[in-house]
Write a structure and sequence with these properties.
258 residues; alpha/beta; seven-stranded mixed β-sheet; five-stranded antiparallel β-sheet; 26% strand; globular
């Protein structure tokens, strides 16, 4: 699963750095730890996330570990913070990128400032989830917007996670394991313009396959080894009925394209 750090949820809302640290301890870092603990998850950050303001006179980049720091817990916190915004994978704005978002239905205070390409469009494109810092505009579970796809209007709903309590909802998902290497997922919450499909995730690759045929549907096919596709195809032939039954169960109230 792809997760995207929300660059708009950190814009100087904290009165000081200590208040920001308290929010990290209670909210953001437990969320990141939970995501990292599950195999196949990837946390993406915008390559300029370090520019985000923590408070009015301090950015993420300005919070650096100090060799003379006497508090080990504070040093560890700063190192975790630097890892959060500095380590890959990072995504960058593409000048040629175009967006089909017609209307954002959240963050009324700031949505007029959203870049055409942002964490929300990236999560939408890659069927991901959003991780937000603690901010009054993002203490909601769903981020909704209207988008235009193939000449049709759709309502897109992104999962937004700002607290570890989000997992108490038990996201609707069915999983299988192939050869103790790959994780196969049929997800209960999918964007309605996609045909029925399943996700396959390993430590190195992620791809999406058609439920009807087992053929490759989307993802980065470049670099995927033949044995990955072969193993998926062989497993699919034996478990097609299970996949179809799981899709029908998780999407029983929704009509999807085929």
């Amino acid at each position: 699963m792809n997760y995207y750090m929300n660059e708009y949820s950190l814009r100087g809302q904290f009165s000081n750095v200590n208040e920001f640290f308290d929010s990290l301890r209670k909210y953001t870092l437990p969320v990141l730890a939970k995501v990292k603990s599950e195999k196949g998850n990837i946390i993406w950050k915008k390559d300029t996330l370090w520019n985000c303001k923590v408070c009015q006179d301090c950015t993420l980049r300005e919070i650096q570990p100090n060799r003379n720091e006497r508090d080990p817990e504070l040093t560890k916190l700063k190192l975790s913070l630097r890892e959060m915004y500095w380590n890959p994978p990072l995504w960058s704005e593409n000048e040629k990128s175009s967006s089909d978002v017609l209307e954002y239905r959240f963050d009324e205070e700031y949505r007029g400032e959203f870049a055409i390409q942002n964490c929300f469009t990236e999560a939408w494109k890659n069927e991901g989830r959003i991780i937000s810092f603690l901010h009054s505009c993002y203490q909601i579970d769903i981020l909704s917007f209207i988008a235009f796809v193939n000449d049709k209007r759709y309502t897109v709903e992104l999962d937004n996670i700002y607290s570890i309590k989000w997992w108490q909802q038990t996201p609707k998902i069915k999983k299988w394991i192939i050869n103790d290497i790959y994780s196969v997922e049929v997800r209960g919450k999918e964007f309605e313009y996609h045909p029925p499909h399943f996700h396959v995730i390993s430590s190195d690759y992620q791809a999406v396959f058609h439920l009807k045929t087992g053929e490759f549907y989307k993802g980065s096919k470049e670099g995927i080894p033949p044995n990955f596709l072969r193993d998926v195809k062989n497993w699919y032939e034996e478990h097609k009925k299970d996949l179809e039954d799981s899709w029908s169960l998780l999407h029983s109230s929704t009509t999807y394209n085929t």
